[in-house]
Every structure is written in structure tokens, then in C-alpha cells.
Write a structure and sequence with these properties.
- There is one protein chain.
- The protein has 327 residues and is an alpha/beta fold.
- It contains 10 helices and 13 strands.
- Strands 1, 2, 3, 4, 5, 7, 9, 10, 11, 12 and 13 form an 11-stranded mixed sheet that branches.
- Strand 12 (306-309) and strand 13 (312-322) form a beta hairpin.
- The mean pLDDT is 89.
């Protein structure tokens, strides 16, 4: 029995190494694509934002190689690596810019902002921001605090290379907020709201969808909501619909759009294409950079546009929603 367990563990370890080898090879592909594309063009994006006519869409390789995204990477002082988290932040900024929201006098409300650079970028553009996150005293915040992804104060959000401290402090406020219980005092107070991969952590598909509907009430007439979330690319196979993280399917989001339309809002059309680049076909496997215990160094540039989550292939979806003009 002891020898069988040892042999079984050895085979399991070999499978882990095979997955790791795939990850390393993917990292090589991503680095080559980066060097042949963006780096070869001078490692700078356009000086001004690029009009795109952005609507809802899924994360894909072509976006990471596009001038519009490179502009927002420059604005955040980050590289356009093939990672869906880079795509998410740039998607939010592009959508808000196209809607005329990144301008002096606008007011924005961010949910579960964690340690995002977005409030600093918005403040530099003249926007007044209310950044919110779970109270650090809430037991659900513990995992985010350990992962250094929790926004407990303005200091967590300040980026000295993006905006000076006086401007940031004048334009950005922070408060604790539970996305499951958005207070009525925030209703009708903002030109835009946003969240980056947050409402999939509310415990169930239905809880996430209801949050999006509830957040629309925080907007002034004609305001804009921009959200990204975890998306299950298989609409009929294995699912993950309850628990700390859920994966939304196409039918869930289409149901959300129907509900929002009945509420008098205008969801922008959704492009469901997942991309046809070689890195769109790469499914990243654990371990990920924040995970501990792996004996080899994590490849920081491994492509991460698609990933395996409990037997599902997931990516990020971006939603753009316009509030009704009559409230």
C-alpha cells in the first residue's frame, strides 16, 4: 500500500511538471509575440486615446495588440502583457473615455476596487471618485488582504507616478461597502460606476446579476456602468454557479441584458467572439503568481487570456450599460 501511494504521487507530480512545461512554452510564445509586435513598434502607445466604438466583448489576443489598449497601458505605466487583468483595466478606461466620462467634473463610483490603478488614472483626468471595498473587518476580506488585493484606504490606491498626492487627495474618497447591500444614499449620485472582476464573488450567479441591476440605481440619467467579470466559455458543459467564485455563461448575461432593458436601461451589444489568435487558444494552468509552494520560479509573462477553473475554460467579459434617461 505504501509503495502504491508513492508511485501514485510520483505520477501526479509528473503530471504537474507536464503542466508546468506547457506553461513555460506558452511564456515563450507570449514573449515572442510581444517582441515581434508591440516592442518592435517602439514600446509606446498612441499619445491620445483611439476611438473604437467599443461595445461589450470578451478578452482576446487582438485587443492586447491594438493601439487603443496600448494607450491605456501607457496611462497606467504598465506593459501590454498577454494577461486578462491588463485587458480588464484598459477595457474599463476605454469604455468610460468613449462615453465622455474621463473628464473634469464627472463623478465615478468604483466597487471592490482592491489595489486598482484606475482611481489614480481617473483623478489625473479630473474625475471625482468614490472608491469602495469590503470592510477589512469583514471575514470575507481576509483572503483579499492576504493576496494584497484589498483596498482598505486611499494609500492603497495612490500611485505617485500617475498623479500628484494633492490632486489625488482632493478628488478621491474611500469608504467601506458591501456589494450585496449598496446603500440608498448613493442612488442617482454618479455619472458612472465600474467594477473589475468583482461581482462573480458574491456567492451565486443570481447575486451577481442582481448587484449589476442594483448598481444602475447609483447612476444619474444617461450615466454609464462598465463591469468586467469571469466568463465560462462553455455554455452547456461543466459550470461553477455557486461559491466564492462563479463563472457566468452567455445565457446568464443575456438574461441580465433582458432584465436591464425591462428596467429601462440600454445594454450595449455584446461581441461573443473569443478570438482566433494562438494565445486565445492557450489555456493557462495553475500555479499562478500569487500561489505559494511551487518549487520553480513562476513565469511572469505566461499568457493568461484563458485559464482553467475547476474544469471550466474561463476568460474575462466586459459589459457596457447605459442608464435610462428617465429615472
Amino acid at each position: 500500500m505504501w509503495r502504491w501511494l508513492t508511485a501514485g504521487r510520483a505520477k501526479a507530480r509528473q503530471a504537474e511538471f507536464a503542466a508546468w512545461n506547457t506553461k513555460v512554452l506558452g511564456s515563450v510564445l507570449a514573449r515572442q509575440a510581444y517582441e515581434q509586435g508591440f516592442a518592435a513598434q517602439g514600446s509606446r502607445g498612441p499619445a491620445a486615446p483611439v476611438p473604437l466604438g467599443l461595445t461589450g466583448r470578451l478578452c482576446r489576443q487582438a485587443d492586447l495588440e491594438a493601439p487603443w489598449l496600448h494607450h491605456w497601458c501607457d496611462r497606467q505605466a504598465i506593459l501590454p502583457l498577454y494577461h486578462r487583468k491588463v485587458w480588464e483595466d484598459c477595457f474599463v478606461l476605454q469604455a468610460l473615455w468613449e462615453a465622455g466620462m474621463l473628464a473634469p467634473g464627472r463623478r465615478g463610483l468604483g466597487f471592490a476596487v482592491g489595489a486598482e490603478p484606475l482611481p489614480a488614472v481617473m483623478a489625473a483626468a479630473g474625475v471625482e471618485v468614490l472608491a469602495t471595498d469590503l470592510s477589512p473587518r469583514d471575514p470575507r476580506a481576509r483572503a483579499w488582504i492576504r493576496a494584497e488585493q484589498h483596498g482598505s484606504s486611499l494609500d492603497t490606491l495612490y500611485r505617485p507616478h500617475l498623479v500628484d498626492r494633492a490632486t489625488f487627495d482632493a478628488r478621491v474618497r474611500h469608504r467601506d461597502l458591501d456589494m450585496r447591500h449598496v446603500p440608498a444614499e448613493l442612488d442617482g449620485q454618479f455619472d458612472f460606476v465600474w467594477s473589475v472582476c468583482s461581482f462573480e464573488h458574491l456567492g451565486s450567479i443570481e447575486a451577481g446579476l442582481e448587484f449589476v441591476r442594483r448598481a444602475m440605481r447609483c447612476l444619474r440619467p444617461g450615466g454609464v456602468a462598465v463591469h468586467t467579470t469571469e466568463f465560462n466559455l462553455d455554455d452547456s458543459g461543466p459550470g461553477l454557479e455557486r461559491g466564492p467564485t462563479v463563472l457566468f455563461r452567455r445565457r446568464h448575461l443575456e438574461s441580465l441584458f433582458d432584465r436591464l432593458a425591462r428596467d429601462g436601461h440600454d445594454p450595449l451589444p455584446m461581441d461573443w467572439e473569443a478570438g482566433d489568435g494562438v494565445l486565445d487558444r492557450f489555456v493557462d494552468l495553475p500555479p499562478y503568481p500569487l500561489q505559494k509552494g511551487w518549487p520553480l520560479a513562476i513565469a511572469p509573462d505566461a499568457p493568461h487570456l484563458k485559464l482553467a477553473v475547476h474544469g471550466c475554460v474561463a476568460t474575462s467579459a466586459g459589459l457596457i450599460l447605459r442608464a435610462g434617461t428617465e429615472r
